[in-house]
């Protein structure tokens, strides 16, 4: 058994000062019934906890680290940037450079604003959609997560699902009233909502590849229906690609499906491990943002030079060959996991799109949040802890996604598949 003594002590102390001992809820391992590991360092595809245990890491800071931990070029670029100061609150060339790079990779983002988190990106995109259309209602999908702003917490995924706080205490009822929710991939459901409220809807916001209830790809028909309905009703379509951007495919889910949203939100990979979010899209809509237009948006640290450097240094290293390699590794890993579960007679549904992957202890099919909820979360909790014992660090919830980085080797994949087999042995033996 691995020794977690130092992490245990550290958690005791952090719990004195922070609710749940953490700064973001799913980190706490509360739902899997354990204490979180405190991390000392990361290198490539591996992380090390403060007790000196080493793991192959598939959380990768919940997605941003597509180049793995402490990528040498990212580290060097950040070191150099720091010597020039950490923030100016005035324009820098770095912001335009990153904006150009983002536009090159995701061409529908003609104009954009940099912010400091995915939450800020989606919150601002929603305000912009409301300001642009002069309408209040928005549509989101059950089990999709778009950060923790008021309008978007309704029926959300991620920690909201993990900890079952769907009624979102603290969100004013009137705001929640303007958020209409529909089941994911429910074509008839969304048509009905538009029939009833089409001319009141400012926007539909969707994770084109859902990643906050495990990985669930939107169907082509579903996403095309969203595009058609919003166009007909003069409301806006927002693709929340905070997770799927640079991950489901190099050019995002919008390239994979060949569907062009009006606005896109980005985060995670776009900052390479530093706090960056982006909202952007059609020029005529983005021109509504202050100071050119009336919809207010601002940020003391928006476009921060260190954050821009983390993003640029990461995006500059991405290319088609790297994606080919990561996709092949993800494919190999998920096939190995399915085989391991089958060999142990454990019902499982394994999903992956690009570098995003997850497994549900559920015989499937898994196409929406109701399907995910049929998963065996007790088995998941035991299995997660068994995997840790075998040196594999995955997302500590059935309602989350795992990731692949460019630093994961063939050997890492083989070791991980062996660890899954060993963990199935352990859990089966009780
Ligand atoms: N949108 C999506 C699709 C996300 O996955 C997340 C975070 N997991 C967010 C928005 C919120 O981003 P952040 O945690 O950076 O605020």
UniProtKB/TrEMBL annotation:
UniProt name for this protein: Glutamate-1-semialdehyde 2,1-aminomutase
UniProt similarity note: Belongs to the class-III pyridoxal-phosphate-dependent aminotransferase family. HemL subfamily.
GO CC annotations, alphabetized: cytoplasm
Keyword Ligase part of the UniProt annotation: no
CDD domains noted in UniProt: OAT_like (cd00610)
EC primary class: isomerase
GO MF, one example: glutamate-1-semialdehyde 2,1-aminomutase activity
The enzyme's E.C. designation: 5.4.3.8
Keywords carried by this UniProt record: Cytoplasm, Isomerase, Porphyrin biosynthesis, Pyridoxal phosphate
Catalytic reactions of this protein: (S)-4-amino-5-oxopentanoate = 5-aminolevulinate
């Amino acid at each position: 058994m691995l020794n977690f003594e130092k992490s245990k002590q550290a958690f005791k102390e952090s719990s004195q000062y922070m609710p749940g001992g953490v700064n973001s809820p799913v980190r706490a391992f509360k739902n899997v019934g354990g204490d979180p590991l405190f991390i000392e360092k990361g290198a490539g595809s591996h992380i090390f906890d403060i007790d000196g245990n080493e793991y192959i890491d598939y959380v990768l800071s919940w997605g941003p680290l597509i180049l793995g931990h402490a990528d040498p070029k990212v580290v060097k670029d950040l070191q150099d940037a720091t010597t020039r100061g950490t923030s100016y609150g005035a324009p820098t060339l770095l912001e335009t450079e990153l904006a150009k790079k983002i536009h090159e990779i995701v061409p529908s983002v003609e104009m954009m604003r940099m912010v400091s988190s995915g939450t800020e990106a989606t919150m601002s995109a929603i305000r912009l959609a409301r300001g642009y259309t002069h309408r209040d209602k928005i549509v989101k999908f059950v089990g999709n997560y778009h950060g923790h702003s008021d309008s978007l917490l309704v029926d959300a995924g991620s920690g909201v699902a993990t900890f079952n706080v769907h009624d979102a205490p603290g969100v004013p009822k009137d705001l929640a009233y303007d958020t209409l929710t529909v089941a994911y991939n429910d074509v008839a459901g969304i048509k009905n909502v538009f029939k009833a409220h089409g001319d009141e809807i400012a926007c539909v916001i969707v994770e084109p590849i859902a990643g906050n209830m495990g990985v669930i790809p939107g169907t082509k028909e579903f996403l095309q229906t969203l595009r058609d309905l919003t166009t007909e009703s003069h409301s806006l379509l927002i693709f929340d690609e905070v997770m799927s951007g640079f991950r489901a495919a190099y050019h995002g889910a919008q390239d994979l499906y060949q569907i062009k949203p009006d606005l896109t939100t980005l985060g995670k990979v776009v900052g390479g491990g530093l706090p960056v979010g982006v909202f952007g899209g059609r020029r005529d809509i983005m021109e509504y943002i202050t100071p050119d237009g009336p919809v207010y948006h601002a940020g003391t640290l928006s476009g921060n030079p260190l954050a821009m450097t983390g993003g640029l240094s990461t995006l500059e290293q991405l290319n088609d060959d790297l994606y080919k390699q990561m996709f092949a590794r993800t494919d190999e890993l998920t096939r190995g996991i399915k085989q391991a579960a089958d060999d142990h007679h454990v019902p499982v549904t394994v999903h992956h799109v690009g570098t995003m992957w997850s497994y549900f202890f559920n015989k499937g099919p898994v196409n929406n949040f109701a399907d995910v909820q049929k998963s065996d979360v007790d088995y998941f909790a035991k299995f997660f802890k068994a995997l840790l014992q075998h040196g594999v660090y995955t997302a500590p919830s059935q309602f989350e996604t795992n990731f692949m980085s460019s630093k994961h080797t063939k050997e890492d994949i083989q070791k991980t598949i062996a660890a899954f087999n060993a963990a199935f042995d352990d859990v089966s033996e009780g």
